[in-house]
Amino acid sequence: QDSIARQSEEISKLAGTLGKRAANVKTKGNDYEMAFAGLLSRHYGLCKNFELRATGQGAGHEMDIQTVIDGNVVMWELKTYSSTVPKAEVDKFLRDLKENPQASIGVFISKTTDIQGKNSAGPMVIEFDGGRMSVYVNRFDDFVGDDDAKVFSMLLGLFRIWWEHRREETGFDRIQIIREAEKAVEELSKRRVEWKRH
Q: Please, which contacts does 166-175 make with residues 24 or more away whose CB atoms are closer than 8 Å?
């Protein structure tokens, strides 16, 4: 009986600790950053000159994760909100992107919710400003589903088109880039629905 009582007490303590950890928003965000860094390493680790640096705990104005892919810097901002991500976070994301001139691409990801003002055109929205591309992904977990490889592959293709355009500066039509990306998103969504049906 003493042994059972001690074990019950330990289980109660463990449950309390885990409950507090889940309730701690900062810890939740840090856990997601670590998990997402693992996804980036898995999908982009073999790209030329790949580097990954977690910057969320740094001096600020750097976003959560910075990667180097094919010699180009991509910055990643991750949100684990339980409600719509407010516009103030989007504004901060754009400021941080401007303050890091080495990065030509910023990716803003909301794990389970929408991003205010960036969800009317579907799960992924692409914008251009001052020679930089911003990619917003709403409800990332739903968008990815069971096959994250397709989404990360699509993002890499989009990044490479943008870098090639910037290198060549041949007047490549930005609207065409957006249309191609939108077609890829639509195709991915259709395939996911078909896969679920079958």
A: 166/104, 166/131, 174/128
Rounded CA separation 15/57 (Å): 28
pTM of the complete model: 0.73
What pairs with residue 78 in β-bridges? 109
HEC-encoded secondary structure of the chain: CHHHHHHHHHHHHHHHHHHHHHHCHHHHHHHHHHHHHHHHHHHHCCCCCCEEEECCCCCCCCCCEEEEECCEEEEEEEECCCCCECHHHHHHHHHHHHCCCCEEEEEEEECCCCECCCCCCCCEEEEEECCEEEEEECCHHHHHCCCHHHHHHHHHHHHHHHHHHHHHCCCCCHHHHHHHHHHHHHHHHHHHHHHHHC
pLDDT in tens, 147-188: 888 899 999 999 999 998 877 664 556 677 777 777 777 777
Q: Which residues contact 140 (CB under 8 A, 6 or more apart)?
A: 109, 110, 111, 112
